[in-house]
Specification:
The chain has helices at residues 36-47, 71-74, 106-113, 173-185; strands at 20-21, 53-57, 67-69, 79-83, 86-93, 145-146, 154-158, 195-204, 214-224, 227-235, 241-251. It is α+β, with helices and mostly antiparallel strands. An eleven-stranded antiparallel beta sheet has the order 1-3-4-5-2-8-11-10-9-7-6. The longest helix is centred in the last third of the chain and has 13 residues, at 173-185.
Length: 254
């Protein structure tokens, strides 16, 4: 049986292939659906790509009910997540990419985080990743703020605690994927219009240890209509790259 983080979210499986995924409400992004980065990380584990994985979120992933995974296609590197006949998300191996956001030190990231715009206006204040109304030990509580150096980058500290670990005490890759998600969305002005991830390509090089002082960086790469393109990078305490991502965020229209 797979890890739980203290709450079961992976169904028992036949052999080594996971056939269903049930997402605990703990991992909500929007109030009624799962964090896209977290779901993408779950599917990426089945894509088995050394260069990373690109995941498209076709519709908000529902919480607290079994979702089917097309394990037949996973043998070719493509993975599909369904709610009945409805396609929720699809994953495939990514082409090599290298879009790193240069880092700052942990203390600088702490200062930037104090200016997190979500403290004053947040469309999803209970988001598992960036929700400021989540308690410590529940959400990741990543609060990216803009640097004042004119680069347009954002930064926030991340010190994963035991609530982000599996039964063996390790931070799983899908938690790193989640941490690569929301900090990208805060690189642009929301103008009172919520945004969500439509597609994310990420590569996890390593995972942090609980208690390590990490830094999550973000930068906007441009916009095209209701689409915003962003890059995020996570650095470990020694400056090593733990994970990197490119994502397309979609502005929700009324």
């Amino acid at each position: 049986m797979a890890y739980r983080y203290g709450e079961g979210d992976l169904a028992p499986t036949d052999g080594n292939l996971m056939t269903q995924l049930t997402i605990s409400p703990r991992f909500a992004g929007r109030p009624d659906s799962a964090s896209p980065g977290y779901v993408a990380g779950q599917l990426a584990k089945l894509a088995h790509s050394a260069n990373g994985t690109v995941v498209t979120i076709h519709t908000p992933p529902p919480l607290a009910r079994p979702l089917d995974i097309d394990t037949e296609s996973s043998r070719t590197g493509d993975v599909h997540l369904y709610d009945g006949e409805l396609l929720i998300a699809s994953a495939r191996p990514a082409e090599p990419f290298d879009a790193l956001v240069p880092p700052v030190g942990f203390e600088v990231a702490e200062l930037a985080s104090a200016g997190y715009p979500g403290f004053t206006e947040h469309p999803y204040p209970n988001c598992f990743v960036c929700g400021h109304q989540r308690d410590k030990g529940d959400g990741l509580r990543l609060f990216p703020g803009r640097l004042d150096d004119g680069t347009g980058r954002t930064a926030c500290p991340w010190v994963p605690d035991e609530s982000a670990t599996d039964a063996d005490g390790h931070v799983p890759e899908e938690i790193v994927w989640a941490a690569l998600d929301c900090p990208g969305g805060w690189t642009v002005e929301h103008e009172h219009q919520p945004q969500v991830v439509g597609r994310i390509a990420a590569r996890v090089r390593d995972v942090p240890k609980p208690g390590e002082r990490c830094v999550v960086m973000g930068r906007s790469l441009g916009t095209d209509g209701h689409k915003t393109y962003v890059a995020t990078t996570i650095y470990g305490p020694d400056g090593a790259i733990l994970g990197q991502a490119l994502a397309t965020w979609l502005t929700l229209r009324d």
